[in-house]
Amino acid sequence: MLGLGYNRDGLFGQTSAYYGTVEEQGRKTLHLHLLIWIEGSLSPQEMRDRVLGDEGFQKALVAWLESCHTGDYFSATENELQHQELVRNGRIHTGKPKLLIPDSAKTLPMRPPSNMSLPESQEWYSVFRADVDRVVFCSNRHDPAHGHGCMRGTPPNRYCRARFPREAFEETMIDSTTGAIRFQKKAVMINTYNPVLSGALRCNTDVTCLLSGTSIRAIIAYITDYITKNGLSTYTFFLTIRTV
Q: Which of 120, 123, 185, 234 is the most exposed place for a label (fewest CB within 10 A)?
């Protein structure tokens, strides 16, 4: 997916380098934190200067970033997806949708047929869009009811520790003072994702550009904290084996 070793661009362009670490959650689920460097990328300061001073570059950058990730569903709203899934499962009455929707992680991704005609490719892409919407609805969507342990603080200052719902924007905007890019976002209960990545991996993903935004320092500190975590000590490793 990153294009390394294949003499071609990856999902986000020509990959210069990457670094990642696998972390274990409290429930023993493994997940990956990954940093990717794109060949020819500018520094955050250079990016800000170009965004504020070059309208052509600004438009090209926004178009590229919007091709890399999105914060909205492909072709439906959350309410429409919820209704479709309830209908598909024969459950029209109200209930918890996640309990009624088949686990998207248990279905394989659709591989596009080779040598497709234009109508065939358009039909496949339409099915792909609907499939990605379902994966994102099942895996990227934060529980609107905020499950156990989600909320922090005391009333009236309680807040979601995952920062949902996110701020909504009708269209992508650029702050003329700071150069920060605010991407279009209407689905406030899902995080930013790459459609191809979600469609292929069938799980929760979060794709964020670190070249622009008011939270860049916090994001870099957060990711750096994860990727520099020490592994288990030899003593702990053998103790775990012995215990098991």
A: 234
